[in-house]
């Protein structure tokens, strides 16, 4: 099992009545709410928390991209990754991920990730995403083009990394007379590719076909995760191979304390801040953003109102759906081992800072996990060292 410290970099000091006076934390939450002096403290604290993952023994850290929101103050994850490259020497740095349809041209992503990979000595994981529904409001991009833009941008980036340049690329959305990315990545043929998903069959098929890694987007009921990963494994089998544990990752809020009762007492208020203030607006889905087939599948799963985190009304709902793993080291270990074993995943991505949680508390949480949970999980889970299937090379013929 590989352990990653994932950070959202949230805004921790929203007004107490924020959810009553604002319908969303995304797109149209006024930027007058942002206090730059507090923001300076946030950024320095959050970067320190990520850098401290290395001496704690984590295998890697994860940063991500969101725009015009108070949920996560990271419109440029590559900037944060650049800082972490210089603050660390061993751990992987996963950018999970760059929202490819928002970049024009996408060769900017190819260049920046290549730079980071070279400077870090080959420690970058390139997460590539379509981008959440709210981003299409923020960028005024036609959501019906989300998937075709993503697929074309992905193809352009992969060719830029693996095909000698210069060459021409003329697609539906991106037209470049010269593609000649310089530098090229240190890792060959390219950095590992992680693609997060929230149940879209098209995404699973895309990942399985190319033998990339599929990372489940959090905030769903654990049963929804299990069904998704079963479906992803089926997609891999249709492509003629068995999914490797490192092709799958489980992302969860995690909190560890001496006892279950103490863990809940210290964590719960920050969970409700997150759920009530930061989640509203996350599920904005503009027309055309999701295919009819995938939309029907997700909507059927959400009919009971308890499948997504916004349906949580009590701590019982949180525990029953495993929307967070909270408890003593023994309890947290037991839950991780149970769910990771059933899903078959080899990457545990933990949110150790959530919502309004202060920096010192988040740091202590990560330390307890590293010292008291990681060794137990690694001992309890079966060996996952069989060779991972290599990503399929991109064909030479291009646009």
Short structural summary:
With 399 residues, the chain is α/β, with parallel strands linked by helices. It has 14 helices and 11 strands.
Annotation keywords:
alpha/beta, TIM Barrel, 8-stranded parallel β-barrel, two-stranded antiparallel ribbon, 14 helices, 15% strand
What does the model show?
With 399 residues, the protein is of the alpha/beta class. The chain has one domain: TIM Barrel. The chain is built from 14 helices and 11 strands. Helix 13 packs across helix 14. The longest helix is centred in the C-terminal third of the chain and has 22 residues.
User: What's the alpha carbon Rg, rounded to whole Å?
Assistant: 20 Å
As laid out across the biggest beta sheet, the strand order is 1-2-3-4-7-8-9-11
Topology as H/E string?
A: EHHHEHEHEHHEEEHEHEHHHEHEH
Gap between N and C termini, in Å? 39 Å
Mean pLDDT figure: 94
Blueprint (SSEs and pairs):
Blueprint (H helix, E strand, L loop, with lengths): L1 E5 L11 H4 L14 H16 L1 H4 L3 E4 L13 H11 L4 E8 L7 H14 L3 E6 L3 H7 L6 H17 L4 E4 L4 E5 L13 E5 L3 H10 L2 E4 L5 H17 L9 E9 L3 H19 L13 H10 L13 H7 L3 E3 L1 H15 L3 E5 L7 H22 L19
Parallel strand pairs: 1-2, 1-11, 2-3, 3-4, 4-7, 7-8, 8-9, 9-10, 9-11
Antiparallel strand pairs: 5-6
Helix pairs in contact: 4-5, 5-7, 8-9, 13-14
